[in-house]
Specification:
- The protein is mainly alpha-helical.
- It has one domain.
- Helix content is 84%, strand content 0%.
- The protein is globular, with a radius of gyration of 16 Å.
- The N and C termini lie far apart (45 Å).
Length: 118
């Protein structure tokens, strides 16, 4: 049942993103910013945590999950370090994902020849 819940929640998040790109003039970059920001906002108001409990990886792996991780890191950082934690907590909580994105992006640029889309 855990896999089914993750599939449904993650799939619904992807459907929302696809509908935003197909039904509006939003670019993938706009949708990325909307999803990460909505993950932070929904976490701050307490709505995203129950979704994570139901959907598991289906809610934490997509882009709103990155916003969720940022917000949770900020909450933890503020609790431990006060105001300074508001600036360091989010980066500390997501440092593994950020590092992986940089390393794998760099490896792909080395292994494959990047080409302009124009």
């Amino acid at each position: 049942m855990t896999y089914l819940n993750a599939f449904i929640v993650g799939g619904l998040i992807c459907v929302i993103g696809q509908l935003l790109m197909d039904g509006t003039k939003l670019t993938p970059s706009h949708v990325l910013v909307i999803f990460v920001t909505s993950g932070v906002i929904l976490t701050a108001i307490g709505v995203y945590e129950p979704l994570v409990k139901v959907g598991g990886a289906g809610a934490t792996v997509p882009l709103p999950g990155f916003g969720y991780a940022l917000a949770k890191g900020v909450f933890k950082g503020v609790k431990e370090n006060g105001l300074l934690g508001a600036f360091t907590g989010g980066v500390e909580a997501t440092s593994g994902g950020i590092t992986a994105a940089v390393v794998f992006g760099y490896l792909m640029a080395i292994l494959f020849t990047p080409k302009s889309k124009l």
